[in-house]
Amino acid sequence: MDLDSKLTTVAVVGAAGKMGSGITLLLAQEMARLSLLPENRGKLYRLAAIDLDADALGGLQKYVHAQAVKSAEKMTVQLRQLLADRADLVENSEIIDEYVNAVDRVVWPSTDLKAVEGADLVFEAIVEKIPVKTAVYKQLKESAPNAMFFTNTSSVPIGLLDKEAGLDGNIIGFHFYNPPPVQKLVEVIKADSTTGEISDAAADIGKRLRKTLIPSHDVAGFIGNGHFIRDGIHGLSAASELAKKEGWPKALYMVNRVSQDWLVRPMGIFQLIDYVGIDVFQFIQTVMDQHLDESLRHELIDRAVDLGVLGGQNPDGSQKPGFLDYAKGRPARVYDFETKGYVDIDSSWDEGLGELPEGFKPWKALVRDRGKGTHLASHFETITGMDTVGAKLARDYVQNSRRIGQHLVDSGVAANADDVNGVLTSGFFHLYGPINDFCK
Ligand code: NAD
């Protein structure tokens, strides 16, 4: 069966969640486009959007509708071509309505897992808990025995899900990054048991959705979280060490600042952990810890979760308080594990780090700069020769990140350094990959 045929009956499970809603939007738009092609008119297109949370499914429909309107307004030229034979559609607004109605029509919300019945492709994006995923897959398999399953898991080995749920190799890791409609990267993870047919389908879907596919070996955490979790643990350990002398708020602030500005990253490590969710970080850590021969837990994460300091995002995308608390999208306060409350960032804390390297430019100023390679080389060369606390923290960070990247290659998780660097530059928006020549 070709991809166009498979894209007539699809399901997303966990459709109303952060990732599921983005995946639903991407698929609904592609299926709506297909449904409007002259040769397909009259065919039924059905994207079952399944979630336990009925209210959230209502929100999903509104989100999909609003995003479809925005997309349609930007692609009226393409839509006119698609609907060229429809003499009845004259005004732009009619063309837009036709497309938005098609998107709305494609999405069939349901709270019943049985709604996967008949689906050829099933995308799963439910909570990152192995027993829950396994139980759900067993039910899905009963209702859709011939479906191909694409899991968005961030860390669970695909082979394990296959074995536990008895999917006969009909599953592949298709790891979108957040938010799926915007992020280009998808990590693709085949288990030893994954069939050639589903691997081919994953390649076709990735291409159709215009994603950059990077393969990862089926090792818990894969490439992206394989780097992120260990990089986070490095930051947590550096802050814990510094806190003995400086106290918690200042230590967390300093490591966050260094991992953003000294490292020229889009955000500091604690802001990133908050963005992902401290509890989500803990889920991923726990799965990796269970499946790898390496201790991957950090007591500060457990302590934060126990205290209800969880981070995460509000529905409008703004960050909830975690290690840091935010005002207008920027860190404004820091959590103090002693007093169990937040304190304002004190501008004198920067003095403890020392001056930034001369000629410093933040990530935002370099992201579209074609000469960034030269600038970064000179930035890290300056750091190599500096004797400040900030420079020392930065050197340790860069060297540790390189060790993690190299470990991912040496242990076979990534096929090569380019794949590790590609995941970090594409999925995490870093300006340079961890396997580099900086601060050697
Ligand atoms: P989320 O909590 O936002 O969404 C999960 C959704 O699944 C919720 O709407 C929930 O109601 C629904 N759900 C839970 N159990 C269900 C069940 N039994 N049947 C049907 N629906 C059920 O979670 P999320 O952050 O979107 O993560 C989903 C998956 O994607 C996880 O495996 C996660 O590791 C992975 N992932 C997350 C991110 C991220 O940045 N959030 C990035 C990449 C991958």
Structural notes for this entry:
With 440 residues, the protein is an alpha/beta fold. The chain contains 17 helices and eleven strands. The chain has helices at residues 3-6, 18-36, 54-74, 76-82, 92-106, 130-143, 158-165, 196-208, 224-246, 248-262, 269-276, 278-291, 299-306, 363-366, 372-384, 389-410, 417-427, and strands spanning 9-13, 46-50, 107-110, 121-124, 148-151, 171-176, 185-189, 212-216, 324-327, 330-336, 341-344. The chain has an eight-stranded mixed sheet with strand order 3-2-1-4-5-6-7-8, with helices on both faces. The chain has a three-stranded antiparallel sheet with strand order 9-10-11. Helix 8 (196-208) links the parallel strand 7 and strand 8. Helix 9 (224-246) packs across helix 10 (248-262) and helix 10 packs across helix 16 (389-410). The protein is globular. The model has no long low-confidence stretch (mean pLDDT 97). The structure holds nicotinamide-adenine-dinucleotide. Nicotinamide-adenine-dinucleotide (NAD) binds at residues 13-14, 16-20, 50-53, 56, 125-128, 132, 136, 152-154, 175, 177-178, 276.
